[in-house]
Each structure stands twice: as C-alpha cells, then as structure tokens.
Amino acid sequence: MSLDFPRKPLHLILAGLLSGLAGLAVAHNPVCVCVPDGDTVVCTGGFSDGSKAPGVTIDVVAYDETILIQGKLGDDSTLRFKRPEGEFYVLFDAGPGHVVEIDHTEIR
Q: From which residue to which does the signal peptide run (predicted)?
C-alpha cells in the first residue's frame, strides 16, 4: 500500500516560500526615537518587530560631518548625551539597510 500525496507545481511552492521570506525582511525595520530631557537628549533604538538593539552604534554628527559624539545603545537600548550646540543629526546604524537619521529639528 502506498500513499499518494497530491503534487503541487514547483512554481507555486517557490512563490509561497519567497513570499514568506519577504514578510520576514519587512518585519525588521530599524526604529529610533530621540527626545529632549532638559539639556540632554535620550535616544531609544530598536526594530519594528519589537526587538531591542543593545550595542548598536549611535553617532551624533555635525552638518560638516564631524562626529561630535560616538556611542552605543545600552542594555536598555537607550543612549543619553548632552545636546550639542548648533546643527546636528543622530545616526542610528544597525548595519547595511538598517540606518536611521534624526535631524536636531525633530528632537522636540
């Protein structure tokens, strides 16, 4: 006695697998929020799937590309720093395709 399973065309199987992988790629976008706290700024980073990002690099960069502050997110996925004078942006860099820039005008 043999069991015969219905066969699906290979293109349908591949399409299903690829669509599942595409959903995984979309579910892991970088997220970073920076808010003022007196004369300091607190940035919290993570990913859209709710995972935290401890150890991810955060740089505070002047408009002339001078790095003002280099840091990494702590175990709680936050970094606190003294707000620089002048124009700057915060660069959350979790690797290729996982970069967020926050301009100083957005920190309010």
A: 1-27
Q: What pLDDT is recorded for position 2? A: 53
Q: Cβ(8)–Cβ(14) under 8 Å?
A: no
Q: What is the pLDDT of residues 56-76, one digit of tens each?
A: 999 999 999 999 999 999 999
CA distance 84 to 36: 12
What's the pTM? 0.74
Class of domain 29-106: mainly beta
Cβ neighbours of residue 77 under 8 Å, at least 6 residues apart? 44, 45, 46, 52, 53, 54, 56
Domain definitions of the chain by residue range: 29-106
Amino acid, single-letter form, for residue 38 = G
The full length of the chain comes to 108
